[in-house]
Amino acid sequence: MDNRYLLALFLILLVLGFEVQGAHLPQQDEATSSTLLSQVQDSFSGYWDKAKSAAHALYQKTYLPTVDEKIRDMYNVSTATVSTYLGILTDQVLSLLKGDP
């Protein structure tokens, strides 16, 4: 399941990279790139809405209080872990930018 998150992160970074590269295009090409970007955003939005509705339907179909409690616990643990590692990463970036040895 970690590979899926890595793939999703890679695709998001790839799209953002193309967006940054597209900023250097001449003025006449900006209109076509913005329509492409809006099409990609609409596509991602559509996929996100479909995935969200499918997940909600699956959740409603298999609702169990114990599973709900486990999901809440997993969410709390994962958000605490992410915030910890995000704090570490922020400290590392700030110290790198600041130039502290």
TrEMBL record:
Signal sequence interval, chain numbering: 1-22
Compartment(s): Secreted
Bilayer-spanning residue ranges: none
Lineage top rank: taxon: Eukaryota
Chief location category: secreted
Record's GO cellular component terms: chylomicron; high-density lipoprotein particle; low-density lipoprotein particle; very-low-density lipoprotein particle
Pfam families associated with the record: Apo-CII (PF05355)
Keyword Lipoprotein recorded: yes
Gene3D superfamilies attached to this UniProt entry: Apolipoprotein C-II
PANTHER family noted in UniProt: APOLIPOPROTEIN C-II (PTHR16566)
Known role: Component of chylomicrons, very low-density lipoproteins (VLDL), low-density lipoproteins (LDL), and high-density lipoproteins (HDL) in plasma. Plays an important role in lipoprotein metabolism as an activator of lipoprotein lipase.
Family to which the UniProt record says this protein belongs: Belongs to the apolipoprotein C2 family.
Name assigned to this protein: Apolipoprotein C-II
Organism: Rousettus aegyptiacus (Egyptian fruit bat)
